[in-house]
Amino acid sequence: MKITGLLLSLAISPLAFSGEIIANNGISVLAVNGVKVESSFLSDNTIEVKDGKQQIAVRFSKKFDIDDNRFTESRPFLLNVDVNGKTTISTDKMYSAVQAGQKIQAGLNWYVTNDNGKYQVENPTELHGNGLLPYSDIEALIADTNRDNNIDVSSGTVKKVTTNSLIDEYRAATVEQKKQFKIWLINNETR
Predict the structure, then answer these.
(1) Structural domain includes residue 60
(2) Does 5 map to a domain?
(3) 106: pLDDT confidence band, cut at 50, 70 and 90?
(4) 25: domain range?
(5) Is 91 strand, coil or helix?
(6) Per-residue pLDDT tens for 9-66?
(7) Per the domain annotation, does 46 fall within a domain?
(8) Does residue 25 form part of some domain?
(9) How many distinct structural domains can be found in the chain?
(10) Is the pLDDT assigned to residue 131 strictly greater than 70?
């Protein structure tokens, strides 16, 4: 019975995720949709996700000189990416620590290549942390940034919360849901 369950789960598991995020050389994926990615030595640059809009936190970090122990590193960025099949995240090619430092200072360009083609990510959000280890709690930092920008990733896809989207949700609700919402609104309006 256990073997049958194992075989069934192995047969179904490839169907659960149809998208794959691949981070190119020097890029680390830190979080997907606000959830920290547990990285390991073997799978640091490939993550399975569902196809569709995903919010991905990435960072460029690379050691250029073999004799030098320093890494050239950027701040983390939030990218809204349309995952479709194998989706690769990349940035401009950099061949030295000096060149990488200059590009990081000027602002990195982020690119996505997937089954739909290649495009440049528009409006990547640079994360700014505070303290000694500013990015140690990447989930809280992303949650704060999303809250400040009215972005909702709770459903597994990225949505900008707008008045129109709230109106659409209300119109799609049942009579009972509308009644519960009105009661909630009256109770919370006086606070």
Answers:
(1) yes
(2) no
(3) very high
(4) 17-160
(5) strand
(6) 444 444 445 788 888 888 999 988 888 887 655 455 678 888 888 899 999 988 887 6
(7) yes
(8) yes
(9) 1
(10) yes
